[in-house]
Design a protein that fits this description.
alpha+beta; single chain; about 50% helix; about 150 residues; four-stranded antiparallel β-sheet; Muramoyl-pentapeptide Carboxypeptidase, domain 2
Length: about 150
């Protein structure tokens, strides 16, 4: 029998817990600022091509990215995306798939795990020439509202 990675359904749920543990290590061994710095550098490098596309084509690229990202995660995450004529994009996360996975498996969700959304989304936005604001974030579920705009908030 021959198989390739394309034959397998996408699944990386334990990645979320590994990232959670890594962030907690950075926070306790170095500082909360080390977590922010790490995630900022990661975002600019890993998402560089996405940032460039958002710069060129606008927020609809980011909307497509979030739609694909949460669809890939499948179970455990619910989102809605609203684009407005004022040049803003709102991402409402009802339940974060990463937080859901850890909670469902009795894994601790460390305090700075939320930065995998807050810092990453802020750096994505700012690097592409947009402003970013998180209106709320619920640590227990990862429910949150993120707003991206062309002008400063």
């Amino acid at each position: 029998m021959e198989r390739s990675t394309a034959d397998n359904e996408y699944l990386h749920k334990d990645f979320h817990n590994a990232l959670n543990i890594g962030i907690e290590y950075l926070r306790t061994q170095y500082s909360p600022q080390a977590v922010i710095e790490y995630l900022s550098i990661f975002t600019r490098r890993f998402y560089g091509p996405l940032i460039e596309r958002v710069k060129l084509d606008g927020l609809h690229v980011l909307a497509d990215f979030f739609t694909d990202l949460y669809a890939t995660e499948k179970a455990g995450g619910d989102i809605s995306i609203h684009s407005k004529t004022d040049g803003s994009l709102t991402l409402d996360v009802t339940r974060c798939p990463a937080v859901s996975y850890m909670a469902d498996n009795n894994l601790p969700v460390y305090p700075m795990f939320k930065e995998t959304s807050l810092t990453v989304y802020r750096v994505l936005a700012e690097s592409a020439g947009y402003s970013y604001r998180c209106e709320f974030y619920e640590a227990e579920t990862g429910a949150s509202r993120h707003i991206f705009r062309k002008e400063s908030l």
